[in-house]
Amino acid sequence: MRTLVLLIALAFLSSSAPVTESGARLQLALLKYNGGGDWYANPTALPNLAAFCNRALGTNFALDYGTVDVGSAELFNYPWVHMTGHGNVVFSSAEAENLRNYLIGGGFLHIDDNYGMDPYVRVAMEKVFPELSFIELPFDHPIYRQTYTFTGGLPKIHEHDGQPAQGFGLFWEDRLVCFYTFSSDLGDGWEDESVHNDPPEVRAAALQMGANVIEFAFKQ
C-alpha cells in the first residue's frame, strides 16, 4: 500500500493524472462503519469533489466513488478515504486493527463531522490508535496552504452551536494519517447546490479546502 501511495504522489507532483499501478483511474472512497450512524450521508459530495479536483488540480479521478467497509481488505485499494455521519460509530477490534494497518501502511483518512458524530468518532479512533491523541492543526499548517490558502484555518460552511470550525490531526511517525474536520461541515459544502442552497462562495470555499486535503495527502 505504501508503495502505491508513493507512486501516486510522484504522479501528482509531476502533474500527471493519478492512476493505479494497473492504469485505472483512481477512486475516492467512502468508509462504511457500524454503530447506527449514517455513514452514507452527503451522497453527492465525493463526486462533486472529484470533479472539482479534476478541473482545479489537473487530477483524473473517477467521478463515481468506492464504498468500503472499515474491516475489509478492499480498504487498501483506496489511498484516500472519507468518513462522515451524524451519529454513533463503532469499530470492532478487527476493524480497528485493519484501519490502523491501512493508515500506518500509507493510507489517509479524512473524517468530517456532519454534526453529532464527534463524541463517537473520537472513541472509535482511540481504539485504532490508543497511543495517539487528536492535535488541533495550527493555521499555518501546510494543509491550509496548498493550491488554496486559508489563513484562518478551516472554512465555516454551516453553523452549529456557535462553535468554531477546527481541524484536528493524528500523526504517525510525523505523517498526518487522519485529518478530522469538526464543526465545519465541509461535506455539506461539496454537495449539489440544490441540497443545502449554500451561496456560491461558501460552496467554493468548501471545495477548495477539500482539494487542499487531497493535494496534501498525496504530496506529504
3D architecture notes:
This is DUF4159 domain-containing protein. Residues 28-218 form the DUF4159 domain. InterPro entries: DUF4159. Pfam families: DUF4159 (PF13709). This protein has 220 residues and is an alpha/beta fold. It has a single domain (2-219), classed as Rossmann fold (3-Layer(aba) Sandwich). It has 7 helices and 7 strands, in the order αβαββαβαβββααα. The protein has helices at residues 2-13, 45-56, 93-104, 118-128, 186-190, 193-196, 200-219; strands spanning 29-32, 66-69, 80-85, 108-113, 135-136, 166-172, 175-182. The chain has a 7-stranded mixed sheet with strand order 2-1-3-4-7-6-5. Helix 2 (45-56) packs across helix 7 (200-219). The protein is globular, with a radius of gyration of 16 Å.
Number of domains: 1
Q: What proportion strand?
A: 15-25%
* CATH architectural arrangement: 3-Layer(aba) Sandwich
Task: Report the mean per-residue pLDDT as an integer.
Answer: 90
**Rg on CA atoms, Å:** 16 Å
Based on helices, strands and strand pairing, what is the structural class?
alpha/beta
Domain DUF4159: 28-218
Organism: Neolewinella litorea
Signal peptide: 1-17
InterPro entries: DUF4159
What structural keywords apply?
alpha/beta, 7 helices, Rossmann fold, disordered N terminus
